[in-house]
Structures are given as C-alpha cells and as structure tokens.
Amino acid sequence: MMNVTNILDCVDWQRSEAQWLYEKYFMRFDKLVFDFAKIPKNTYLFKTEELATTKVFVTELFRELIEDYQLPGLDFSVVYDSEFTYTEAEQRMDQGQAVGSGKWRMQFDEEGEFWLGELTLELKYRWGRPVYIPPILLGYSWHEVEKCEIDSFNW
Asked: What domain range is 136 assigned to?
C-alpha cells in the first residue's frame, strides 16, 4: 500500500464531461480526458484534485517499468477514454466481455453464471455470486477488462 501525494492539475476540461451539484460542487466524471502537456515527463503516479481521495493514475513510464520487471497483479486498463455506465457494462457482459471498476470486476462464467469479484490486498480477486448488485456499484464508471479465472473457494 502507498500514499500517492503527487496531485496534478491536468484535466482537459474542454474534452472531459463531469457532473456537478448546483453547478458548483464536483460530483464525478462521466468522461475523463487528460491534458498530457500538463503531466511532467518523469511522472510515474499521480492524482487529480477532483479524485485525490479515490483514484490513482499511472503513466506509460510507470507501466513500462512494471512490465520490464515483470511484476504480477496489476491491471493497466486504459480508463481515461474508455469508461461507460453500469447499464453499458451489463450489455457488454451479455456479449461475453468482462468489466471492471476500481477494485471490482464482473463477468459471467462458462455456464452463464454471474460473478462479482473484489480485489484484495493480496492482489487476488475474491469472487462471489451476489443475490443483488450493491447499489453503490450502479454509479461507478466501468471499463473492459480481460476475463480471468474465477476461484469461487476464496470468498
């Protein structure tokens, strides 16, 4: 676990789409686009002011470093130009794809059973077949991820 303190003002507000409360208070991004000119060349990890308590972003430089040393357990899904709503996540799963959001992953197994996975501190997914979808997941932004093996005995 680490505390990333590098907070950058690098959101491209012209191309990003955000939701605001009373046009004053930031709520969330529907689409987040970075202005890469505002990200210093030797940056590995950073946060944005708006998401500083919830999201850490990595650069290609960091991804290349991790891949060079073949460190396992990290998912380098591109999120700044491929996020979608929960409704679209459901549609993509119906088409056989897996989706993720933060520490969460959803997918169907070979028998068509729905599984919800939560990433643990050991960088492994704890899978379960929920009776209902936790309501908080409905408001998250999702992205496509590769399907992974479901170990149902580690819940």
From this structure: 86-154
Q: Quick check: helix, strand or coil at residue 18?
A: strand
- Asked, for residue 76, whether it belongs to a domain, the answer is no
Number of domains in the chain: 2
pLDDT (tens digit, 9 = 90+) per residue, 115-155?
999 988 777 889 999 999 988 899 888 888 889 888 765 55
Q: One-letter amino acid identity for 98?
A: A
34 by DSSP, 3-state: which? strand
Token pair for 72: 């396992």
pLDDT tens digits for 9-63?
999 999 888 988 898 888 888 888 899 999 999 999 999 999 888 888 999 899 8
- Phi–psi pair at 136, nearest 5 degrees: -65, -30
pTM: 0.54
- Beta strand spans in 1-149 (E): 7-8, 17-21, 25-31, 45-48, 57-58, 98-101, 104-108, 114-119, 125-128, 143-145
